[in-house]
Amino acid sequence: MVRKIEFSGEIYDIELSEELLEENRKIAEENKKKFQEYGVRVIEVRGSIGSGKTSLIESLVEVLSDKYEIGVMAGDVTTTIDAERLEKKGAKVVQINTGGECHLDANLVRKAINVLDPRKLDLIFIENVGNLICPADFPLGSQQIIVVVSVTEGPYTIVKHPMILEDADLLFINKIDLAEAMDVDPSSIERDALRINPKLKVVKGSLKEGMGVQEVLKSLNLT
Ligand code: MG
Ligand code: ZN
Predict the structure, then answer these.
(1) Ligand in closest contact with the CA of 47
(2) Is the four-CA dihedral 161, 44, 141, 20 of positive or negative sign?
(3) Which of 33, 44, 102, 177 is most buried, most CB within 10 Å of its CB?
(4) pTM for the whole structure
């Protein structure tokens, strides 16, 4: 059974006042401290709808669940589809329905922390809502950030959303088996990404084909 917490009227309005962003940053710092205290490693996964966020987390959970106790916070506007997929792979999942909002914020994550009982977990993945814009403004308190883009989003998805990569650690370019059909060059997406964030690790793969998962594990020192 997927545990679910619903939020309505608790998420801040989209008008991003500096005060609101500052408040979010403060809560994110508190979350980060709490995660450290509990000794749990937390990785946020961002990307558009359909880019492969859930698939990547599924693949990682599949490989790592023998070794680690894994929790997932699955952000979604309304559905529990992803949460159910992830639970099948052996993770403890809490669904965060944002009640219409297009991103998670640190306050939602703070509430979800207690539901997951992080003292018993080694690793938590936070799947943000499918969106490449506002998650950049709302740090959640994770120690690492993965951004997933798919070549099916076209060649400009990264150059159009540079902010999403600024604090990211790893970019996963997904569905490269479709690159030729889409007339998209994954290497040019990689170059654009490295121009925005030269410290970024980039992995190209196809989750449907099981390509790239080992490289992600290695890049994040998860093996
Ligand atoms: Mg998903
Ligand atoms: Zn948003």
Answers:
(1) 1
(2) positive
(3) 44
(4) 0.91
